[in-house]
Amino acid sequence: MISKDSFNSASTHVELSCIPEDTTGLERIMLAAQGDLQRLMSSFFSRPIFIELVYANGSPRVKQASPDHPVTQSRQVHLVCASRIVCTATSKVTITNPDFERVFLDEKYPIGQTFRKMLRHPQFTLLDVQAQVVNGKRELRRTYTLETDGFLCEILEVFPDRDMFVRGEAWLTESKLELEQSHTVKSQDTKPWWLSVGKGKGNTLPWGFACTYGLEPSPLVYYHDIWFVSLYLLLLYLI
After folding, report:
1. Of 61, 74, 126, 213, whose CA is between 20 and 30 Å from 96?
2. Other Cβ atoms within 10 Å of 111 Cβ, number
3. Which residues contact 110 (CB under 8 A, 6 or more apart)?
4. From residue 100, how far is each of 17, 47, 57, 119 by CA, in Å?
5. Burial 126-142 (b: 16+ CB within 10 A, else e)
6. Radius of gyration of the chain (CA)
7. Distance (Å, rounded) from C-alpha 52 to C-alpha 49?
8. Strand pairing partners for 137?
9. Are 168 and 43 spatial neighbours (Cβ–Cβ below 8 Å)?
10. 181, 184, 120, 106: which is closest to 148 by C-alpha?
């Protein structure tokens, strides 16, 4: 265990050990989140954080969840803000309480909201924290457990770019702009040949004939011109 959360009548002390030396204060707050990461990130970005399910694979629900018949689920979700993934969470959940089974599996509350819905404060254990560079981005990840009677969650969370905690809104805007630009480049690269004709009067088709003046070049205009030329050649032949 690399986290210690202690309190008394006069003070509270949250201690994180064995974490990267360059961990910032804001990152420490996120690393110490106890089922309320979505809420904290929403407060930081001042935007809603959405949960997008990647996959969820559960054991057969033959009987109601109980200590003798636990129900398990392996799942992965993306935490998304302004169309950007701010965290990927991969979890293994073990349920031995039917009320938790109903809220989590039937009503489909995410893990953090399940604890809030059930009015339970989970026991938090931080197991590991790592920082590494992946594809040129400074990645931060943590492994931890959240547990209460009847509901155990083992979770790996990956923050894809630590710059988000430094730049905030600017990071969201910049990342969104980069995504839009990449989509624009891709659409330009796959543009059909017949859209490459320039705009304006006297547009010339690839085979040398001018398309109809005052109209935007399009396949219909091209087909019309081909038909006209073919008819003209036919008339010359008949004459």
Report:
1. 126
2. 21
3. 38, 51, 77
4. 32, 28, 17, 11
5. beebebeeeeeebebbb
6. 29
7. 10
8. 134
9. no
10. 120
Residue 114: the pLDDT is: 97
pTM for the whole structure: 0.72
Residue 216 predicted with pLDDT over 70: no
58 CB-near residues (< 8 Å, 6+ apart): 71, 72, 73, 74, 105
CB 86 within 8 A of CB 158: no
Question: What integer pLDDT is reported at residue 2 of this predicted model?
Answer: 81
- Six-digit token pair at 120? 């339970």
| 235 contact partners, CB below 8 Å, separation of at least 6 | none
pLDDT one-digit tens code per residue, 72-82:
999 999 999 99
Q: Is the pLDDT of residue 192 over 70?
A: no
The answer on pLDDT for 220 being more than 80 is no
pLDDT of residue 102: 97
The residue among 115, 69, 118 whose CA lies nearest residue 95 is 69
Predicted pLDDT at 5: 85
Q: Which residues are paired to 151 by β-bridges? A: 95, 148
Task: Round the average pLDDT of the chain to a whole number and report it.
Answer: 84
